[in-house]
Design goal:
This is Helix-turn-helix transcriptional regulator. The structure is a single chain. The chain has 5 helices and no strands. With 78 residues, it is mainly alpha-helical. The protein has a domain of 40 residues. α1 crosses α2. The longest helix has 23 residues.
């Protein structure tokens, strides 16, 4: 998504989007929620609220999915 597209979706200037990307602008909670919805990355918000980094939450999701798939496939061959 381009900075211009993101700026339109977040109802802010392109320069503010650029400042967000370079950590020179602090994101407001409402903007963070909007960003997560726009980018379909709600797990980032959940990770932040839980005090976890995005990599940790994604790894846990992948581990859970792998276990679930293994259980399903294993059940098919019993």
């Amino acid at each position: 998504m381009s900075q211009e597209d993101m700026a339109l979706e977040l109802h802010m200037s392109i320069s503010n989007v650029s400042r967000l990307e370079s950590n020179k602008y602090e994101l407001k909670a409402a903007d963070l929620i909007r960003w997560c919805n726009i980018t379909n990355a709600q797990e980032v918000l959940i990770a932040l609220l839980c005090g976890m980094d995005g990599i940790t939450i994604m790894q846990q999701l992948m581990d859970t999915a792998t276990t679930l798939v293994g259980t399903i496939i294993g059940g098919l061959f019993i």
